[in-house]
Design brief:
The chain is built from 6 helices and 11 strands. It has 203 residues and is α/β, with parallel strands linked by helices. It has one domain (4-202): Peptidase C15, pyroglutamyl peptidase I-like (Aminopeptidase). Helix 3 packs across helix 6 (185-202). The longest helix has 18 residues, at 185-202. The protein is globular, with a radius of gyration of 15 Å.
């Protein structure tokens, strides 16, 4: 069995017709980097169901790495998330919303997990290729944070690389929002490919 990178993205939400996280993730399904195969998984925009789905996929696939992708409308760059917290607010509509109704992602779990992706190496390589990217200290309290926390918790005893990357709006989406940053799917996919190759080199 070849090693597998589990790459997750989300269905559209909040009235959007598309979600760049799945537009990008689906492009890599079945691709291989140095013999490591990518398995793309589309997740529902629902904290409980997304957590269950990613944990089940980790149990079934025993991946060598897990990379979550999600949409963060308004951000101008790829955001490499550093921290996932043990809070999920199912009433939020976006990562920057919510918190008042938050409950633990995993009852009894640690307060937070740090990413185990080689973010410094990924960031350096992205900038060398002129792809806008930054480090983010918070994945929010909605479903993206939930998926990042759930994956890191499920892999806590294995030390498997896992983490999360937020993507901007795709350019066509931004046409429906006033004065908001966007990026082409082509550029986002190029950035994610760089991240995947960097992760594979680190395995």
């Amino acid at each position: 069995m070849p090693k597998i990178i589990l790459l997750t993205g989300f269905a559209p939400f909040a009235g959007e017709r598309r979600n760049p996280s799945w537009d990008v993730a689906s492009q890599f399904d079945g691709q291989r980097f140095n013999g490591v195969a990518v398995k793309a998984l589309r997740l529902p925009v629902n904290c409980r169901r997304a957590s269950k789905a990613v944990i089940q996929a980790i149990t079934t696939l025993a991946p060598a790495a897990v990379v979550g992708l999600g949409q963060a409308g308004g951000r101008p760059a790829l955001s490499l998330e550093q921290v996932a917290i043990n809070l999920a607010d199912p009433r939020a509509e976006r990562e920057r919303d919510g918190g008042l109704h938050a409950k633990p992602v995993i009852p009894g779990g640690p307060d937070a997990y740090f990413t185990r992706l080689p973010v410094a190496a990924i960031l350096r390589t992205l900038k060398r290729h002129d792809i806008p990217a930054t480090i983010s200290l918070s994945a929010g309290v909605y479903v993206c944070n939930t998926v990042m926390y759930s994956a890191l918790h499920a892999l806590r005893r294995r030390g498997t690389p896992a983490g999360f990357i937020h993507l901007p709006y795709e350019a066509a989406q931004a046409a429906h929002h006033r004065a908001v940053a966007s990026m082409s799917v082509t550029t986002m996919a190029a950035g994610v490919e760089i991240a995947l190759k960097t992760i594979v080199r680190s395995l």
